[in-house]
TrEMBL record:
InterPro entries cross-referenced by the UniProt entry: DUF7881, HNH_nuc
Domain DUF7881: 9-83
Species of provenance: Tuber borchii (White truffle)
Residue ranges of domain HNH nuclease in the record: 116-194
Protein known as: Uncharacterized protein
Length: 249
């Protein structure tokens, strides 16, 4: 099956001001997205050699502020150059081997979270072993463990599994408990958590928006837990979501 063309549901488009016929990227404007969010996401999939500003289709400056982002066309104005990054993304597909799951990872994530971290839905039958509508999810995919090792991402982890042989990728700090349906959207990068905007939940596709979670923030109880996912893995996942959904035409 060919990859999903995510440009079909966009309602905001990015251009260079001196080339208004070439789409550099775009997105679906979900609830909770702000002008400042657009500026920060642009810096993920575009490389700039100088400072830049955004203008809307009415030639008005778009401030770097918390005002709600609106659908429409946006134009980058800069004295430097703009290059759309060719950074390779780590797409999760059913054809990829999932790696070796370890029971300690599942147990640690379940006991820490006991609810879908994104929707807040409680695992009410957890005390009876009723986890069937919840999924323990690796934030950095287990299928890419070799890249994890090659890039020394294990250095992000401060709480490794009790068994060294389980590998740092199976740390509770790389895990999150999600409802089974939410896990599908998370794995597909249709939603992500932005740790640099107070852990805001960002939806990148209209079907993810159906859950009315876009623009919410993770609750403070979860964030105060010293065993929670480290910011680096959340930031990595958010970066992948931006690249997959926003880059290019």
């Amino acid at each position: 099956m060919p990859p999903l063309n995510r440009s079909h549901w966009r309602d905001a488009y990015i251009y260079a001001s001196d080339d208004r016929s070439t789409v550099l990227g775009g997105l679906w404007v979900a609830e909770g997205l702000t002008n400042a969010n657009l500026y920060s996401m642009l810096q993920i999939f575009c490389l700039f050699t100088d400072t830049f500003d955004l203008y809307d289709s009415c030639e008005q400056l778009v401030e770097r502020d918390g005002q709600p982002l609106k659908p429409g066309d946006y134009y980058i104005v800069t004295a430097g150059s703009i290059t759309v990054t060719d950074e390779v993304t780590q797409i999760r597909t059913p054809s990829l081997p999932s790696g070796t799951r370890v029971a300690s990872f599942t147990d640690a994530v379940r006991q820490r979270d006991r609810r879908c971290v994104i929707t807040g839905r409680q695992a009410r039958l957890a005390h009876l072993g009723g986890w069937d509508t919840f999924e323990t999810t690796h934030i950095f995919p287990l299928a890419y463990e070799q890249q994890w090792l090659h890039s020394n991402y294990g250095d992000w982890i401060t709480i490794p599994p009790a068994k060294v042989s389980d590998g740092t990728i199976n740390s509770v700090q790389n895990g999150i408990l999600l409802g089974s349906n939410i896990r599908c959207f998370f794995d597909a990068y249709k939603l992500a958590i932005d740790p640099d905007d107070n852990y805001k939940i960002v939806c990148f596709a209209p079907d993810a928006g159906d859950f009315k979670i876009s623009g919410r923030h993770l609750d403070q109880t979860f964030l105060d837990n010293p065993h929670r996912p480290v910011d680096q893995v959340l930031r990595w996942h958010f970066r992948q979501a931006v690249l997959v959904n926003m880059r290019g035409a």
